[in-house]
Design a protein that fits this description.
The chain has 89 residues and is α+β, with helices and mostly antiparallel strands. The chain has one domain. It is built from 2 helices and 3 strands. The protein has helices at residues 15-22, 42-58; strands at 31-34, 67-70, 85-88. A 3-stranded antiparallel sheet has the order 1-3-2, covered by helices on one side.
Length: 89
């Protein structure tokens, strides 16, 4: 009696394909909400955040993308914003 043949009997992998098949690629996305210190204007905060913190964040090993989102001012808005900017890494 012949032994049963499974799908694995038909598949062959080179060593590089096997490594690619078994290597897990994990990606994390972090979102930080930032608030400015009391006494800073929006312009001062955004300039500091972009020119100081942006380059620091860009040096994170294997970082694919860094996005800084600045809060928009809405005229006559009754609510105080919970944060001034959001960074996505």
């Amino acid at each position: 009696m012949a032994s049963p043949v499974g799908v694995a009997d038909y598949l062959t992998y080179s060593e590089s394909e096997e490594a690619d098949r078994t290597a897990w690629r994990i990606m994390f996305k972090l979102v930080y909400c930032s608030s400015k210190e009391a006494g800073l204007t929006d312009e001062e905060f955004f300039r500091y955040w972009e020119s100081v913190h942006g380059p620091i964040g860009a040096r994170i090993p294997r970082l694919r993308k860094l996005v800084q989102n600045h809060r928009l001012t809405v005229p006559r808005d009754r609510y105080t914003p919970d944060y001034d900017g959001m960074a996505e890494l």
